Amino acid sequence: MHRAKPIIIINFKTYPNSIGENAVRLAKFCEKVAFETGIDIRVAVSAPDIYPVSKAVSIPVYAEHVDPYPPGRHTGSVLPEEVKSAGATGTLLNHSEHQIPMEQLEDSITRASKLSLVTVVCADIPSKAEEIAKMKPDFIAVEPPELIGGEVSVSKAEPEIITKSVDLVKKKHNIKLLVGAGIKTREDVVKALDLGADGVLIASGVDLAQDPEKALRELLP
Description:
alpha/beta, 8 strands, eight-stranded parallel β-barrel
């Protein structure tokens, strides 16, 4: 069966081996695999690492989060203007580890989009994904929180989450769908794509691997 090449986003989170100098090292592995395979691989890194990572690689670099505020009195906030200036071309939003109230989420999507930042918005269940789809992000990533970082993937444990999300997000709102949580094998990725996803959001399967380049290659369909 012919299918388009998937979009793979590696979320670096803040593991010791995916921040600082290690973030640059990991991003270079991702870039190497992307160039050699032709797969669309993107990385999401913490705010302090956006500048050095974006200078070191040419694949898309996303912020792990942005706040909805305009420039001004917002001490400690991460603004879309800041991450774009640092070299980010997109952002993750509403990850289960950094959730945003829905009214703020829509503001964050709007602010980021106005700056031409790609928005990848996370949702825990298909109905929430449909609610977010009305805000018109570029991608929605559905990740059941109970499976994140685990050994069983959403593709195997709850494939109906993917099929429902395909109906509610892709077919109804024409928004690209990513899925994540527990994805650690090529079989997990292939099944997600066969069920209708456009790609996957991965973290620990690559970030925590002893050989992250090998782990990433072995995931690709």
